[in-house]
Amino acid sequence: MKFTKTAFRSAFKEDNQTLVWKLAYLKLGHTPTKKEVYSLIGEVINPQSSKLINKAWAIANSSYRKNRIEFNNAFYWNARGAFRQYDIHYYREKALRMLRRLISEPLTNYTKIANFGHTHLYFCSPIYGHGDYNKVCTCPLNGPLATDANGNKYDPQAAWCEKVLNLSNRIYDKKREAYDKAV
């Protein structure tokens, strides 16, 4: 492979940053810097529009571009139309952390128990419920439908949230009984 303006232009047009950097290496004879790649793009392609200038800057600063793409890919539309950044495992871990906190800490005014909302499982005050301004949003309830052994449709995410809710209520009830006996 050798450096040609045609190959360089086609790599730039295809948005192939690896090939652009490789061709810049072949042209310069050493590992290029971001500034050298940007100036080489300016010499060979001579971008006039702001779109091409931004593309040249993005290819030259590929680490920034990679981080930006990863950032954009972290967000997606869910069934309700809102952005959600994390996957189900993150929310389940968050719910389990809140359960561990409920187990380990004594009852206070800031104790949170599991409670179903319209779209998520929340950990909120047992007194204020879903109206708690300081609630913690955990698992979404609109998971993919699966079928059980009888062929009935069910939501495995909602079933998992139901188990967390029952466990949270049992823990809270036991702590409340022990507190009432002590007082």
Descriptive report:
The protein has 2 domains: 5-73, no CATH class; 83-182, no CATH class. Helix content is 54%, strand content 12%. The chain contains 7 helices and 7 strands. It has a 3-stranded antiparallel beta sheet. Strand 1 (76-77) and strand 2 (83-84) form a beta hairpin. Helix 1 (5-13) runs antiparallel to helix 2 (17-28) and helix 3 packs antiparallel against helix 4. The longest helix is centred in the last third of the chain and has 27 residues, at 156-182. It is elongated and about 85 Å long. The N and C termini lie far apart (83 Å). The model has no long low-confidence stretch (mean pLDDT 81).
How would you concisely characterize the structure shown here?
It contains 7 helices and 7 strands, in the order H-H-H-H-H-E-E-H-E-E-E-E-E-H.
Write the layout of secondary structure elements.
Elements: H1 5-13, H2 17-28, H3 34-44, H4 50-60, H5 62-73, E1 76-77, E2 83-84, H6 88-104, E3 113-116, E4 120-124, E5 136-140, E6 146-147, E7 153-154, H7 156-182
Antiparallel strand pairs: 1-2, 3-4, 4-5, 6-7
- In DSSP terms, counting alpha (H) and pi (I) runs of 4 or more, how many helices? 7
Separation of the first and last Cα atoms = 83 Å
Helix % is: 40-55%
Spatial arrangement of strands, main beta sheet: 3-4-5
Query: How would a textbook summarize the main sheet?
Result: 3 strands, antiparallel
Flag low-confidence runs: none
Q: Domain count, please report it.
A: 2
- Cα Rg: 27 Å
Q: How much is the average pLDDT?
A: 81
How does the overall form come out from the CA principal axes? elongated
Structural class: alpha+beta
